[in-house]
Design goal:
Elements: H1 6-10, H2 18-32, H3 41-57, H4 60-69, H5 71-74, E1 120-126, H6 128-133, E2 135-146, E3 162-163, E4 172-177, E5 180-185, E6 194-195, E7 208-219, E8 228-231, E9 247-253, E10 260-262, E11 265-273, H7 274-279, E12 281-287, E13 290-296, E14 305-308, E15 324-331, H8 338-352, H9 359-374
Parallel strand pairs: 1-9, 11-15
Antiparallel strand pairs: 2-7, 3-6, 4-5, 8-9, 10-11, 12-13, 14-15
Bound molecules: zinc ion (ZN) (2 copies).
Amino acid sequence: MSKRDYYEVLGVERGVSEAELKKAYRRLAMKHHPDRNPDDKASEDKFKEANEAYEVLSDASKRAAYDQYGHAGVDQSMGGGHPGGGANFSDIFGDVFSDFFGGAAGGRGGRGGAQRGSDLRYTLELGLEEAVRGTSVTIRVPTLVNCKTCAGSGAKKGTSPVTCTTCGGIGQVRMQQGFFSVQQTCPRCHGNGKMITDPCGSCHGHGRVEEHKTLSVKVPAGVDTGDRIRLSGEGEAGAMGGPAGDLYVVVNVREHAIFQRDGKHLYCEVPISFADAALGGELEVPTLDGRVKLKIPEGTQTGKLFRLRGKGVAPVRGGGAGDLMCRVAVETPVHLDRRQRELLEEFRQSLAVDSSHSPKANGWFEGVKRFFGDL
Ligand SMILES: [Zn+2]
Ligand SMILES: [Zn+2]
């Protein structure tokens, strides 16, 4: 299976800035999120693909490794070893990743047989209000923990793993292939260097068992889709006494009924009556802290943006709160009664006298005239 280029996956150029990268990722994540595309395998794959690409490219050191070596620079997948296939891990832990620079040193190929546990990822769905204000949530994650019976060794009580006889404890074997001699991970001990002659009954020699862990996660105020919260040591238990991996809680902010978020700014659309738009007036507009009054000047056109400073989101990385942008949309009145019709009819006639009341329409008709004149 060949992987697509990460930049191509996110639809960005190689030299793209971090901010642009995040934007591109967010757009894809929103579009292909499993919650919005239930039972859609293609979307799920795209979602995972985008996650993986962003995971790498958003990390400066991984991005550098990827730029230089391509997928080979970052694919140190340590996740191949779930006992029994780990089918029930597939959904929330779509991809298991490892730190290329940090974690790999103690990982596969280490001589002592100890392997750092895999990092896990958990997607946390949040409402906009929770994301903006911060919250505490309790999550339940399936993970691998050290087997209590054998204390993680995988060997039956009273016995201990012995040095692998196939590789002599090195974890690697040399295979002759034609002219070449190729080094491979030892098929017997899978690189551990040790093998278990008398496996533990509780974990069948794996040293780890599946368990659900309940964790409390503090979500700081201002988080946004794609932000990660790292819970150090809460990933899978390491094999053969290795250190546990980390759990990454990845935030996904649900769409809001009223507000659209773009970084620290919020947008909303506010309907206003035709009369308020023409005469000016005061509107009640929603903010995350309740309603506020907004003065609309006379002659307000539909689509006009009004900025409420500081009513956006205070970013999680610090800095001042963004703004709330209210876009007014003039609503055409419907279900008019007779009296209202008469008034409007009269009003229409009063406009016909002089065209200065509709500057936009005038400009438009002028343009149309010129267009046909040029033909
Ligand atoms: Zn055990
Ligand atoms: Zn071996």
